């Protein structure tokens, strides 16, 4: 089964073993797997972080919940407990159910949730409900892939890493290239390295190429809707729509305020002067 684990999922197991050893626990338990997931950089860590779960708080609770033991603390490897083995088995089932031929941190998290949710362990350790964690993991899991099982583990990891690099902005091919170079063992990185590309040189070159004018640029909107209170106005001018569409809501509000505040007041029409005669001498 371990051959199906992605590199990130395998690192979770290593960290879980280190956590068990450092806490003087005789076995790797589902709690240690949670600690490993929190310290990873995969989808599971992203989901837990967005729910406000911190590794320090969970570690303190795990330390107080599990009794220390001396049996395996000095061994090179700490064995998995029956509960942890069950979580690993469930992670494989979760992956197969989703049609994936690999086990990533997201599947490992779903497996731990399956095992730990019955006894109320998840709310106790994480402060959130197991269903809430599961829903968040599934929500940010890559979608729209006709068959994720057709992707290699390196490709899956690269796409996840690219999304993290993009942050709140759109993910571009530049992010994908940088994500690929982060994995020194994948096929693409070996080819790019043979051509002399490095992460630093690629990042510098990408910085010289603006997205505008490339196929990574978002399509120009042909129209844009602006809502002011209960009134919605549609701008059909493509150039104006593109300009307005690039503004945030706050920037648009500022622009409208400035436009209305600087508008000249209409001039008063000429009328009779104080004597009742017209000011027009003609």
Secondary structure elements and pairings:
Layout: H1 7-22, H2 30-38, H3 43-50, H4 55-65, H5 82-97, H6 105-116, H7 121-126, H8 130-140, H9 153-166, H10 173-181, H11 187-194, H12 199-207, E1 224-228, E2 231-235, H13 238-245, H14 249-261
Antiparallel strand pairs: 1-2
Overview of the structural elements:
It is a single chain. With 282 residues, the protein is mainly alpha-helical. The chain folds into three domains: 2-140, Orthogonal Bundle (Double Clp-N motif), CATH 1.10.1780.10; 152-207, no CATH class; 224-261, no CATH class. Helix content is 53%, strand content 4%. It has helices at 7-22, 30-38, 43-50, 55-65, 82-97, 105-116, 121-126, 130-140, 153-166, 173-181, 187-194, 199-207, 238-245, 249-261, and strands spanning 224-228, 231-235. Strands 1-2 form a two-stranded antiparallel ribbon. A hairpin with a 2-residue loop joins strand 1 and strand 2. Helix 3 packs across helix 8 and helix 9 crosses helix 10 (173-181). The longest helix has 16 residues, at 7-22. The protein is globular, with a radius of gyration of 29 Å.
Overall pLDDT score: 78
CATH superfamily of the largest domain: Clp, N-terminal domain
Please give the share of residues in helix: 40-55%
Task: Note the gap between the termini.
Answer: 101 Å
Low-pLDDT windows of residues: 69-73, 144-149, 274-282
The top level CATH class name of the largest domain? Mainly Alpha
By CATH, the architecture of the largest domain is named Orthogonal Bundle
Major sheet summary line: 2 strands, antiparallel
Radius of gyration based on Cα positions: 29 Å
CATH fold description of the largest domain = Double Clp-N motif
Shape: globular
Physical arrangement of strands within the biggest beta sheet? 1-2
Count of alpha and pi helical runs = 14
Structural class: mainly alpha
Number of domains: 3
């Amino acid at each position: 089964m371990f051959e199906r684990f992605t590199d990130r999922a395998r690192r979770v197991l290593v960290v879980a073993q280190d956590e068990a050893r450092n806490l003087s626990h005789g076995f790797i338990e589902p709690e240690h797997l949670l600690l490993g997931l929190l310290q990873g950089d995969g989808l599971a860590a992203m989901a837990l972080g967005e729910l406000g779960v911190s590794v320090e708080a969970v570690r303190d609770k795990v330390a107080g919940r599990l009794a220390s033991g001396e049996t395996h603390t000095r061994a090179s490897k700490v064995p998995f407990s029956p509960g942890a083995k069950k979580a690993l088995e469930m992670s494989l089932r979760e992956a197969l159910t989703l049609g994936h031929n690999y086990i990533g941190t997201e599947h490992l998290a779903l497996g731990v949730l399956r095992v730990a949710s019955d006894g109320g362990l998840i709310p106790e350790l994480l402060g959130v409900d197991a269903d809430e964690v599961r829903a968040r993991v599934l929500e940010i899991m890559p979608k729209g892939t006709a068959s994720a099982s057709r992707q290699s583990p390196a490709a899956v990891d690269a796409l996840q890493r690219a999304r993290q690099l993009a942050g709140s902005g759109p993910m571009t091919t530049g992010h994908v290239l940088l994500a690929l170079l982060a994995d020194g063992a994948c096929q693409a990185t070996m080819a790019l390295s043979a051509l002399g590309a490095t992460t630093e040189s690629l990042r510098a070159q990408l910085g010289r190429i603006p997205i505008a004018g490339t196929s990574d640029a978002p399509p120009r909107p042909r129209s844009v809707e602006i809502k002011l209170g209960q009134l919605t106005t549609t701008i059909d001018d493509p150039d104006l729509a593109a300009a307005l569409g690039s503004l945030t809501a706050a920037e648009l509000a500022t622009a409208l305020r400035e436009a209305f505040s600087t508008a000249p007041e209409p001039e008063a029409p000429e009328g009779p002067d104080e004597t009742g005669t017209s000011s027009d001498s003609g």
